[in-house]
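Recap from last week: sequence in, structure out.
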Amino acid sequence: MYAAATESLIKQAREIKEEELQRFCGRIFKQLHTKDVSGDTVDSLQRLNLIVSATKYARELPSDLVMKLQTVLRSSSCPEQLQVLSSSIIRESSPPSVHSLCSDPSHDSRTFSYVASVVLTQAGNKEDVMPLCHHLLKSLESRLSDGQISRHTLPILSKMITAYPEILTDDQVNLVSRKLVDWLRYASMQQGASMSSGGFFSGPRTRQPAPLTEVDGVVVGNFFTVLCVGQSYTEDQWMNMYTFSMIKSWLLTYDTDGTTNTESDDRSEVDSSVMSMVSATSSSSRLLPPKERLREKAFEYCQRLIEQSDRKALKKTDTELQKACIIESVSIMDIICGEDPSYVYRAFPCIKALYGRLNGDLTYARALLPIAQFYLNHSETAAVDSEAVFCQLFSHCPAEQFNEPMLAFEFVQFCLLNASVLQDRVANYRQSFPNLLKFLAWNSSGLIEEFVELLPSLIAPDTAIELLHTILDLPCLAAALDLQQRSACYHASDRTTWDQQGAKVAACLDAFRQPLYRGLFLYILRPEAGTGDTIDRLKMLHEILADMSESPRVVRCAQVVPVLLQVYFNTVTQKADEKMMNQMLLVLLERNSLLYNIKTFNVEVQKVFSTHLQALCRLHPPLIVDQSREILEFASSPANIYSKEDFYTHVVWVIGEYLSVSYDPRCTVELITSFFESLEAVLFEITQVRQSASPPSFSPRLVTVLMTTLAKLATRSQDLIPRVSLCLSKMRTFARSAPVMACYSEEDTEEIITRAHELINLLKLPNVAQFVLAPSAGGDSPRWHRDTNASLPQGMRAVSGLLHRHSSFLPTTPYGTWWT
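Predicted structure tokens:
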């Protein structure tokens, strides 16, 4: 969030009128024509930069001011601050013609870099940046005395090929590749010359170049790399650093086809591998084509960096640089091995030694990801067992480093990139979802989008139900991880520090360390699937963590659970078999009352449950009979109405819709009667009219669904019709009672009365009622409403005529709503 003063400035910049902006631009134009640049000019340009940057759309500036800003931008004699501001303003404003900027490129490195940034931002196609490209390549070929142009060339070239990879021809690619080889491999071994003061009575003198050192202080004995340390650097050493920073993107862009000449493209894969192996042992690699030579030198450079990373750095910053170089080097070697498999046999000894060195050090956890990627891509080629690598990766990194946001993001990205391969080749990938979800529990707001995409790959038939439980327990996992972190920071004896966390957190910390609850926390923090089940003790866990329910981390985590549930059910219902559907239905019935008590969490989860309960029963209607005992137990309890009304309403609806012999021949009269009697008792209990009765705490929708379901069941066992008719006849009394009138609107009470009247009239004709309220399994086909040869339109006309004769009441709702 911005500070209040900054917010105010941004708001003013966005709301400035066009007339005022034009006057302000005119004042700046006059200031830029003065000989001496004052502070007022700089201040005005800063304000104009804020104005053009504060809006999403590009502001159009006067053409004369734009031309003047371009002049300032291209003038090497102008102060750098003015060039920076001019470049930023032109980039953010409406695109000018980039051809004028490229017409006469400056040879001053600083000026050229600012012009290039504008051209690359404003260019609309490859032709717009072609003059800039020619100038860059020309500067690469030139040998200027100061060498400054080349130093700024590579960053610009890297950005250019990222945007327009096809801009370089094969000859130009070979030219750049040769230059990159020279900079990468043949930089000087002495530090750059530096000026020092000679004292008060003498002028400055140039120090003799000193040798470079390794990060541990030893004098460099091999070629220069980014891990060589010096007080100052020569231009070719700077170019070495720039080259290493862009070599990965260069190889990905221009090294996908091996060599560039036609003869090399026609060689067989075996010949290519043989040539690469010969070149590796050759005394000189200059005979190789430019691309292959760059590949060879880049590989040697990465090997040297990995060797240098084993040295004990004297400075902490150098240690961090070593970690970054390991990650980049292994990634580059992975790319090279992908293009030429012969390098795999040279790379694996180095990678295996590196893994053995980093495996036990959690500070290098991020470096394990590119190593794992290398094993995933090339272990089969080299016939190397990679199981231990992935066991370590999935078991230890998430469990011990879940609170590292950068590692969490990169780890999830690694899984997303390789999801299909991990499913097929890594046995413990799907088993490790309890660990992977720790990343989401701790970093829920930052990783929800990635986990929505990743979750389908974690679903397997043998762990799908446990995964569902784990998603529902995700807020508990967030609370447990929080307690685990706090417990590790504070000793039990340091009671004062504990109490500073707040009384509620301190009580949870006490419970976390008690042996009595150890099993509960070990389960919720388990590293892999299939290590236990505490469904019977979840209520106890929720009670222990009750004081953590308002924690911001827990609340944010609870907000992502409904999203994940939608993804989970949408994925599972596409491939679930009958057994899994039965298990999921049981989970819905069990867990709707076993949820962590967080504000709005239960309601949101039950909405998802309700939606997918209907989907499950629609896909497999026999579920109602398969789980009749559990469904009947749930539906016969009025207490479920008051705590989970929406889900209860959907359960009643699926009973009326799918408890029919047309869906399952096992649906007997006895079964229908048992459901009918249970729902009848519930409806009777909640609609009793007493003088002391309190207003109903359930919606009219529940009453209408119960009435309709009872009517549906009665049509399938017609002996029940008199009982449901008697029950429906009491609905007017219920709807007109004082407590109900005080709670429901007039429209609600009329809806109850109307629905009861409709059903009573319909049940007077049992065969017609069965036809309307209990259609066959294919009765919801849209063709029935359009096909003139179908019997349903004629049947509906007959029903309308019969109701006309038997009652003055005419239904005001579509017939389709009678069973909703």
